[in-house]
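Think of the structure tokens as a kind of shorthand, similar to the way a musician reads notation: each symbol stands for something richer, in this case the local conformation of the backbone. In the example below we present two proteins back to back. Begin with the first one, reading the sequence and then the tokens, and try to describe in your own words what changes along the chain.
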Amino acid sequence: MLGGLAAAAAITALIAGIAGAWSPCGFSMVDTIGGALGNARRGATLVACATFALGTLAGGALTFGSLALLGSLAGHGVAGLREGLGAALALAAAIADWRGVRIAPQIRRQVPERWRWTLPLPLACALYGVLLGLGFTTFVLAFAVWALAGISFAAGDPLLGVLVGLAFGAGRALPVLWMAPGLREDGSGARRLEEMAREPRLWLGLRRLDALGLGLCALALAGVSAGAQPLAPATDPSAAAGALAWQQPGGSGLLSQGGSAPLALPGSHPALGGANVAWATPAQVVVADRATLQPKLALAVAGVSALAVSDGWVVYRDDDAQGERLIAVSLADPAQRRYLAGSRLAGQVSRPALDSSSVVFALDTPRRSELVLVDLATGRRRVLRQARRDAAYFNPSLLGGQVLFERVTRCVQQLRIAGLGRRGGRVLLSLPSTVARDPGYQRGYTHAYNSASGCRNRRPGRGGSTLLGATALSASGAYVTKLGPGPGDAAIVSVAR
């Protein structure tokens, strides 16, 4: 859903930037670049065009990227409200732009004229470009500019904000670059400028195009907001191509396809992958066709506590008196099996996640915590993340070269997404850790300098009551389980990617 929002918002921003050419600043920039040096120094004019364009791109990225960053810092606890308000703002601005309503509030400020006389032309044009790209330092010529600011904040994705800012900056630069070089050279720029000034209907037409784009943004944001509603009681999500499966606490697995009503599966620990669905019974693992639920393969395995499936493989974790093991079985040749990991203590090997023939899982031992990726076709192993102190990794999911995982420290629980070859990753959700922290001193005694909690997101005392659990990754979003303090207090929430 966020991909559609990014495309609609970027196109809207481009058109909104072009509409800004009808402002006093837009007209003056054409004259500043195209008329200041005439034909004598054509090269300097072209350099000024380039610096102006770079300035508009930088200004746009700064404004809308910063707003999106602020939205991400606002927290996902208010994500549904934030996105709902963003959708309402986009819809209101769409109506206003379609009807050509007078812009209000209007910023009646122009770029400083003295720059063109006191600074080298390329530098002055770069600064002018930054001011125009910032969007709110000069005249605003469409309600879409205000709405795009709200949309960037509501989306809470800095990459989307930067994309919107670059598109807006490009839109502000294009009319100037189209007219300025020919303003004095052959007169073509002057003719274009005059034609544009005489046709305010073009400006209204651009605002109506913006209105259409804002309508698409409102639909996308409304869809993200609706998708953010929690699914409860539920744990262990698994997603694939418009379908979602999950586990009922103390019950069987459920499957919903295409938004249909959930269907009870004849087993637990459901998993989706490709065209398959898998579940476990007390005595076996069943792999079936996702559309018809007709079994394709049954493996005699007892004590299964986690599953993952794809079109070519099924991976299960079983528990017995000897500990827990993670085993991969080829669907084409069930005799082909791979031992992936094991532990004598339960809880050290995570639920696996499959994407085609690649499986990812977490290992958490007293010595280290790591995310491991295994290519089941070749047996090649790769450690994606590793920590030996101060952090732990849990509950990974895998899709299309990206891994979703949880990073937990004494201060915070983070749901992150990253490329397989990248460190860090983007934070999609952040909660305080459940670790209790003492104040670092005994009451009744002097304390002047020390405090045991050094966490900026929480005070000393009891930890958070919500624990992040199993995850799933789809093309449109991410799913994570939130576990509460009570038995059966579990819900699955969706987060935009």
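Once you have a description of the first chain, move to the second and do the same.
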Amino acid sequence: MSEIILETSDLSKNLGALLAVSGASLQFKRGEVHAILGPNGAGKTTLINLLPGDLKPSGGSIRFRDEEITGLPPNRISQAGIGRSYQKTNIFPHFTCFENCWLAAQSRRSSSMRFFRAARRLKDVEARTRRALDLCGLMARSETVASAMSYGEQRQLEIGMMLATEPELLLLDEPLAGMGTEESQQVIELLRRLSENHTLILIEHDMNAVFAIADRLTVMVNGAVLETGTVDQIRNSPAVQEAYPGVDESEEAA
């Protein structure tokens, strides 16, 4: 089995007259936490939108587990084993935690639209749902309506919904956005646990969190990849420091 789980080759995306991603060639290794950094407008979110099929590339290719996935629709890519969370919480607020995760787990079945069968008779779907709730730390809140939970718990639930699809690779777009210190620490610990059995690719502006959990970093500027390396390599890179002032000043989270 290749150590490279996801690879992009000369990946590009035009948004009107703007070249939002320009010739990005990257390799993401199995079992690593790989963070994508860069100032606003660097192309980070566009890149992470290309990987699960939310945007179609203007050029280049994407390979997942040595299979070409360029241009496939998001549902096919999800079923292949890539999960995705978004900057804005993407849950069903009037459903319970269990119901939210059950709907996500159901999407992995080839017959996902057969709603006439009783949900809890689908043993494999229920098992995925309970595993996801356990992994994201919300088993005790399984019957709580999502809208009644704190913002941090709702972000955990979104991660739980992603886990219910049983992905091998997790794409996380600013998972700590809008959180206070205590909630951020809880999600950081959740990401640490998930990294034991999953590959994580994340965008995050909290440098302390990034340096605490990432194995490798990619820095983007003006749509292009500037440099990829370990945390120490990126922190000590003159090119990165010039393009992204302050990246060398963050200290690891306690």
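Compare your description with these statements about the second chain. Residues 151-164 form the longest helix (14 residues).
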